[in-house]
Amino acid sequence: MNYDNLIRLNKFVYENTDINQAAFLICNYVVKEFPVRGCAMYLYNRLKDNFEVISLAGHANFPSEGDCNDPEYRNFICYRNSTKCGFLALDCDVDVSSEIDYVSSLIVLIFNRKFVSDLLEKSSAPVDYLQDEFDFYSDLRNLAKESSGMPAGAFRARHGVGLKTVFHWNDWSGEVYQNSDWDIEDIRDTSVCPFFKECLDKNEVVTASADDVSHLFFHRRMQKGVKSAVFSPVNVGSETIGVLSFAIPRDYVFSSLEKLGFLSLANSIGVSLTNFSRSATAALDLQDDVRISQILTAVEIAQAARHSARADLDTLKTYILTAGRILKGDLDNKTRMKVSGILSECDASIGSCFKSLDDIKSAIRPPARKLKRVNVSSLFESAKMQVRGRIVKNNVDVRWIDRDAEIECYPDHLKQVFLNLLLNSVDAFAGSRRQGNRNIRARLHNYQENALSVAVRFEDDAGGIDVAGLRTSANDHVSPVEDLVFAKDITTKGVEGSGWGLYVSRKIVADHGGHMSLIEYRGKTVFDILLKKVISI
């Protein structure tokens, strides 16, 4: 073995930040210095719980996923403490173990450096602070998973004496772990779990080894697959706002470097949460958005109410003319009854005119932001009444079907969501040549009595969304249709549309702690609205 080359290799590996290049030089060194046909370096992947090749040299064919016990190759396992972090696989006929040990020990350096590199690269991915809460936490969860390289984890925010789960993931796979389920429940009192308590009290990273996971906390929540776990405090300034925890289905000793990395990731998430909160405050206030949307919608409702009022007045005019002709002749008892009936119709028609005018008044009334408990169907029916003139004119059958549910909400705001959806659907029917089956339906979807939320499905069979018109309006032929549907200032109605209805609707639903999504847009249009039953907690 050429020790000068080994010294140069050692110096290069320690100084080079390019992990793949350093790994290749190690493999290439082994092929040149030892009687082997090929060499491959495998590193342990915590997320997939396997060993993956990161570099190879020589003429041998090595699999992308390696087994350190594969008898086809001579494998030199590298341990960091008691944890297998990787191995070198050699295709050779002679025993070179006494000479290769030092070279294989460089795997620890590569493994640690790869963890830091992946953490820095993936945790620096941009996060959209202007999206709704559901999508923001989904992005944050993916960032935590990919950056940490851990197959399971959860972020819990401080909530009184306990912790409330904000997001979680579990990507364990394979038969061995198919019944595993990393804990995703809220922690009512941190004293029941010493790991959470110690993490918060000491404001430091706490690990749980194979012996520690025998604690009642893990058994009570059926943590069958957990062999090792780590708990990191999430800090924002001097305040600890929660705990970011990870689990892995094998015995694993976390290094001080990894614990420092997890703490850095946790604090990065804390900063993201703070930025999200600030962005929400700095963005257009929801009240203003709702108000603008109501003003724009009021114009459409006023148009419908105007048509309805004009039709009623035309009917009233006809009745009055008829009554005038009758009054010119002699009035017998039968005629008097007829005149009485006509005048009754006039009275009803006048009442309808006043109702139409009330609709206009109701449409432009500032929305009240007051929490109330109401039935979801009542919000739908109230919105339906506001546009009944346009519904009748376009011969559309609008119904709430099946069961109902009571929720806590801001009724004036949430009604606006149904109002925007109804107006879009009725307008779609107005431009459709279909005569029959002009239906709009709303109902609870997959309802569960004891669930914390309800899903409302809204659908119409007006032919779906004009995707071509939507993309033309947005000048965007790449983005997903759902992104464009909920984007601001994009409409398929031309000059008659504001492009704000669904954008504001989704923000209103997010303000209620829920999420609004497009389920179908081909042939028919289907939206799902997920709403919490209680939002004041």
Automatic annotation (TrEMBL):
It catalyses: ATP + protein L-histidine = ADP + protein N-phospho-L-histidine. It is an enzyme of class 2 (transferase). Its EC number is 2.7.13.3. Residues 304-535 form the Histidine kinase domain. Keywords: Kinase, Phosphoprotein, Transferase. One of its GO terms (molecular function) is protein histidine kinase activity. InterPro entries: HATPase_C_sf (IPR036890), HATPase_dom (IPR003594), His_kinase_dom (IPR005467), Sensor_kinase/Photoreceptor (IPR052162). Pfam families: HATPase_c (PF02518). The keyword Transferase applies. The keyword Protein biosynthesis does not apply. Signal peptide: none annotated. This is histidine kinase.
